Structures are given as structure tokens and as C-alpha cells.
Amino acid sequence: MPRLVVATTNRGKLKEIAQLLDAAPVELLTLAEFPGVDAPEENGRTFAENARLKALYYARHTGELTVAEDSGLEIDALDGAPGIESARFGGADSTYPEKFALIYDALGRRKTAGSTARFVCALALAKDGKVVFETRGTVEGEIAPEPRGSGGFGYDPIFLYPPFRCTLAEATAEQKASVSHRGEAFRKLRTYLTDVQRRDRKDRRGSRGGLRRISDSTASRSDAWANSRPGHESGGLDAIHVRVLSSPTKRPAMPAAPSNRLSNSACSAISVLIVLLLRSPVISEDVPRSLSVFR
Asked: Across residues 2-7, what is the average pLDDT?
């Protein structure tokens, strides 16, 4: 089974990703299995750029098929902040309750109690120095009036998902996975991996089967040609056809003439008989036409 490195050290993300890829045809590896690999600098200007650079970096340093994602929260009233800085918002060492406080303070200064917002997840899959697959998932919602719920992780307690009438931290793990940005992106990855495996299996079967079919077809064709060669004794019309061809100079024996000289009517009858025999499909020499069903 192919191995897939999940390039994140975030335990919450790892748990979600493992559940989302549970049925994928890959063996999951984490960065904990590559302790000598340091984290790259995430200097991309978009989620997609950061996902690509992380996937390529870890694929190069591990030598494995690698998936990386970059995700975060975009709040419209804050011009898309915290955006790609979501994990570092308020400082790399700040807690999420501290990040929440900063967000509510910024919204208060803009005199807005809430705002539309979305979670974004950009995903990239890399192998041998190339990005072989990438996708994006989003989930639309609002900033809740206050943090609620103890499930999930990250910004889930302040992200209100209107169809559920609760925050993602209040939703069950199954509910969240069914609508989340990360769930959407990794379901697409799972479909991609499954399709690739299915095509590979089909190609391998087709390659082996194709060789057999070509071989069988060639053998059948050769047999058919051999069976139609002069001297081959087979049944039915082919036997008649071949035996006549094998002795092209032979002609059906003519009845003995009652005298040394045949009458004109007898000669005419014999001529007609010879013409009919020569035109008969039984002695047709169109052998290739009889092999058309094997081509």
C-alpha cells in the first residue's frame, strides 16, 4: 500500500485528517516519524501558496508522497483577517482564547457585533518535486456573539454555522466533518487517491489481458490460415475448398464417349459443366476473405 505523509504537527488536524482518510488506499505517516526534518518558513501570500511550499518541502525531505494543507479563518468585517496568519494571530505563542479576545476587540472598534466569515483550507499533494494534486475547501458562516462549545479546536468556538444553529465547537465530530472546509478538501483527496488506484489496477489488468488477447488473436489467425492451406484435411466446405485447390489441374472425370467423336450437343453440355464448376464458390481461391472474422 502506498505511504502518505501528512505534513502537520497540529494534533487536532491530524485527528480530523486520519478520520477523513480512513478509507483511502494509503498508509498514513506523520512528521513524528521524521524527527530530523525542520519546519519550512511559510512565506506564501495565499493559503494555496503555503500548502504547495509545505507539500514540496516535506516530500523532498522525506522522499514520500506528501500532503500538506494551509487553512484559516477569514472575517469579512476585518478585511479577511486573520487569514493566512490565523495560527500566528496575536503571536505564535498566544492561546486561542487570547486570539478570540483580539478578534472581538477589533470587531468592537469597527462598531460591528458580528460578521460573515469563512474557514478556508487549501490542500496540495506532492511527489518527486511536483505538485500532483491540489484542491480547496470552504465553509461559510458567521462570527458568534461569544465563544461557545468545547468540541473541535482552533477557532471553532467562535464560528457559527447557521444551518446547524450552533458553532462548530458545539456540533458533533460527524456534523463538523460533513460540512467543514478541511472535510471538503480531504474528501476530494480521498476520491483522487481512490481513482488513481483504480486506474492503476485497470491499466495493469488491461496490459496483461491485452497481451493475452493479442496472442490469442494471432494464434487464431495463424490457425485459420494454416487450416486453409492446401493439403489440410478439415471438415465441411473448407475441406472441399482446400482439397480442390490442392490439385488445381484435376477436373471431374468426363463420361466415356460412345464413339471417338462427340456430338455437338455433348460438347456444349460438357463446356457448360466446366464453366459452372470453375465459377462455383466451392473452389473459389479467395482465401483471405474467409479469414476476415479473425482480424
From this structure: 96
